[in-house]
Design a protein that fits this description.
The complex is a heterodimer of chains A (419) and B (338).
Chain A (H helix, E strand, L loop, with lengths): L2 H13 L7 H35 L3 H20 L8 H11 L34 E4 L2 E4 L5 H8 L13 H9 L29 H26 L4 H7 L2 H31 L13 H17 L1 E3 L5 E3 L3 H8 L1 H26 L4 H4 L5 H28 L2 H7 L1 H4 L7
Antiparallel strand pairs in A: 1-2, 3-4
Chain B lengths: L1 H11 L2 H40 L6 H15 L14 H5 L8 H12 L19 H10 L9 H35 L10 H28 L18 H19 L4 H21 L10 H29 L12
Classes of the chains: A mainly alpha (419), B mainly alpha (338).
Protein name (chain B): Imelysin-like domain-containing protein
Keywords (chain B): Signal
Main location (chain B): other
Chain lengths: 419, 338
């Protein structure tokens, strides 16, 4: 390759219209949205802690319902941050503490007889920490007489090296607020009674004080974990400065996050797999039957990243130069295709959400032979697959391919889920 | 700068010649890698279903022989996860694994316990959970001590015939999809098709190679390895029928064929692939540990680890040499995520 030829190509490139948008500004918008969305996750998690405090102080049907409502609200901003996960190792290494699933909930509390006991895969699947102040774990005697955030984070979470031992995060709290959903693929969520937190003779299912202690510790841990992540995205934070120090790597990270969540994670593991297994345990928010919302806000988070716009929970709009602007400057048709595909996904996920809100919950959609439910879920899956194809075209067009290869989770992650 | 150089390559090379090389490569992969393997799968799946019709006893020699030969044929296409294999979840229906929550034995046990009539009707069986379908479910029906002896023998016999008939149906559906349009969609990309350019079609095939290598290293070999302190030999693939290592070997042989065809434009890259594949296959051949039971003891575990590293070494050639040669990115695949 001779220098003169390369120079002439450079000249050609430079002669094309100047880019209307700088990568640095696009990266700033991306980091600003992360800071705002994790910030909103923190604010709504603090409200969840307040509601949990009220439930423990004055257990009643009302305080129980208020805590559930706070949990549902907290999921809205958090799920929109998931588009940041796969492109940013600092997020991916951390998020398991907060959003791991599926979980063997018998680790935490009492379960129905149909749950079974310990399995080949997980010796701690039915440990029931709330009922057992001391127990043996991987051959070691463990003192759990006081359940603290530290105990959950350092001793119990992923105990015995098993990812199904989810001791903390949103889904542990969800289980403690709703209980097991014993309705299979029929309508209905978990139906834990508020008296599971009552004192004295009103207490149901025993150990109400320890259950409250666990719930409080798990909720507090969500807040402290989110405080950490908000700081990573603030001015000078590690997540932000990693990106601003490597512009092509940052653009690649954005697209990697969008594509990996769209395809392998959401369309694959979370939606299509559960549907094909007809297994309600494979639905993400299985205790609360909130899965339609979790999927919907995942999709919205992907769209937010591309459009460079996020509506905060207080109504403020965080917006700025976007990936869409970058792509439009290179290839307006491709930008239109990307926008259309993202919109189609949101419409399909919206149809699924609408049907769920009208009474066909996500686990019902997964039932064997429910053709309508299957069509709703597959509508979302197919749209997510289609948008991934376009994301690959965007990667090629923006010329961040070799960066993407090095940073791609697909080459680095040992966690295979299915083929 | 690398991208500029690549772009330059396209501009400077006699355009027709570059396009010819890419087009010939696509046609070669489709005609000589993909189509013959899917034909073989369909033929062997028919033989399996026929054997089940003749004698459905779990230990019947013909049934077990055809099970193994059809399973080999599946493994040889298991990396080709695009197009017809993804329509109507066909590939998922042929192969649901890994199964970390034990869905396959649970699903089969429930069908058998209820003598669920769906298990006697191959058409209706398409609605059953993928955990109850395909090669990995059939393995339980033929080789698992509990499942192969539970409930009513007549019902289990029907179920074996239903599952094998379903495997044949899915295998033919994938082959039909290739022969009635998808082969040309890949070999001759067009603006209105699933691939708009030779680069997009080449990327799909490149992704298939990477998927196969990743799945082989991280899942087929990595899953039973677990961690040093907590090895998981019972997580090996298809250990009940003794196929764990065999699946790795069959996969590598098929992936080598694909890699050589993809790299055909460069003798040097073909040679690099051959070195690494031959090495990995030799390590596998010398292993003498058909179900990776050795992962449980330090000395033999090391040998499985060497096998895993030898597959990782192939991935390096794919990433560092083949990707740039084809001018395509690794893209996204089903294994992305957690």
């Amino acid at each position: 390759m001779t220098r003169s030829l390369m120079t002439s190509v450079l000249a050609l490139t430079l002669a094309s219209p100047a880019l209307a948008v700088e990568k640095a500004d696009v990266i700033d918008t991306y980091a600003d949205i992360a800071e705002a969305a994790y910030g909103d996750s923190l604010i709504t998690a603090q409200a969840l802690v307040d509601a949990v405090d009220a439930l423990i102080a004055e257990p009643s049907a009302d305080t129980m319902q208020a805590a559930r409502t706070a949990w549902l609200a907290a999921r809205v901003p958090y799920q929109q941050t998931e588009a940041y996960r796969f492109g940013n190792p600092i997020v991916d290494d951390w998020e398991g503490k907060l959003n791991a699933w599926p979980l063997d909930e018998g680790l935490i509390d009492y379960v129905d007889a149909s749950y079974g006991g310990a399995t080949d895969e997980n010796a701690a699947a039915a440990l029931n920490v709330i009922a057992n102040p001391t127990f043996t774990l991987s051959g070691t005697e463990v003192d759990a007489s006081t359940i603290t955030p530290e105990f959950l984070a350092e001793t119990l979470h992923e105990a015995d090296g098993n990812e199904a031992n989810v001791a903390s995060g949103y889904h542990a709290v969800e289980f403690l607020l709703w209980g097991q959903d014993l309705n299979g693929t029929k309508h209905g969520a978990g139906a834990r009674d508020w008296t599971d937190y009552a004192s004295g003779d009103d207490c149901t299912n025993d150990n109400c004080d320890r259950r409250g202690q666990y719930l409080k510790a798990a909720a507090d841990l969500i807040v402290s974990d989110l405080e950490y992540m908000v700081a990573q995205w603030a001015e000078g934070g590690a997540a932000r400065s990693t990106l601003t120090g490597n512009e092509d790597g940052a653009i690649s990270a954005m697209l990697t996050g969008m594509g990996s969540l769209s395809y392998g994670e959401l369309a694959g593991e979370r939606m299509r797999l559960g549907l094909m297994l007809n297994d309600p345990e494979e639905e993400q928010d299985c205790f609360s039957d909130n899965t339609h919302n979790s999927h919907y806000y995942d999709g919205l988070g992907i769209q937010n990243v591309y459009l460079g716009a996020y509506a905060r929970t207080d109504g403020t709009l965080v917006t700025g130069p976007s990936l869409s602007d970058l792509v439009a400057a290179e290839n307006a048709d491709l930008d239109a295709e990307m926008q259309l595909n993202l919109s189609t996904t949101m419409r399909k996920l919206g149809q699924m959400k609408t049907a769920a809100e009208a009474g066909m919950s996500y686990d019902q959609m997964m039932a064997r032979g429910n053709k309508g439910g299957e069509a709703l879920v597959m509508g979302g899956v197919n749209a997510l697959i289609a948008q991934t194809k376009t994301i690959e075209r965007v990667v090629a067009t923006l010329g961040v391919d070799d960066v993407a290869i090095e940073g791609s989770d697909s080459l680095d992650s040992p966690g295979a889920v299915f083929e | 700068m690398k991208n500029l150089v690549l772009a330059l390559g396209f501009i400077c090379a006699p355009l027709g010649a570059a396009a010819d090389v890419a087009t010939a490569m696509l046609r070669d992969v489709v005609d000589h890698h993909i189509l013959p393997r899917y034909s073989t799968l369909a033929e062997r799946a028919d033989a399996l279903a026929d054997a089940a019709e003749q004698n459905c006893a779990p230990d019947a020699a013909a049934l077990r022989d055809t099970y193994h030969s059809a399973f080999d044929a599946w493994i040889a296409v298991s990396h080709l996860r695009f197009g017809p294999s993804e329509v109507d979840n066909r590939a998922f229906a042929l192969a649901f694994w890994p199964d970390s929550r034990g869905a396959t034995p649970k699903t089969l046990a429930a069908l058998i316990a209820d003598a669920d009539p769906v298990g006697t009707n191959p058409q209706a069986y398409a609605d059953v959970s993928i955990a109850g379908r395909g090669f990995y479910a059939l393995e339980f029906l033929l080789f698992d001590e509990q499942i192969s002896t539970s409930g009513d023998a007549t019902y289990r016999c029907d179920l074996v015939q239903t599952v094998t008939a379903d495997i044949a149906t899915q295998s033919h559906a994938i082959l039909d999809g290739w022969t009635t349009g998808y082969a040309d969609a890949v070999a001759a990309p067009s603006e209105g098709g699933p691939y708009r350019s030779t680069e997009e079609a080449a990327q799909e095939l490149y992704k298939a190679l990477n998927l196969g290598l990743e799945f082989t290293a991280d899942t087929r070999i990595g899953r039973p390895m677990g961690s040093f302190d907590r090895p998981r030999p019972k997580r090996a693939e298809a250990w009940r029928s003794g196929r764990s290592l065999r699946n790795v070997e069959v996969a590598l042989v098929s992936l080598q064929d694909l890699a050589r065809r993809l790299a055909a434009g460069s003798d040097a890259v073909v040679a690099s692939f051959d070195d690494r594949f031959d090495d990995a296959l030799k390590v596998a051949g010398d292993l003498d540990d058909p179900v990776f039971a050795g992962t449980a003891t330090p000395q033999s575990r090391l040998r499985v680890e060497v096998l895993q590293q030898s597959v990782a070494a192939i991935r390096e050639v794919a990433r560092d040499d083949l990707g740039p040669q084809l001018g395509v990115a690794s893209g996204f695949n089903a294994l992305d995520g957690d």
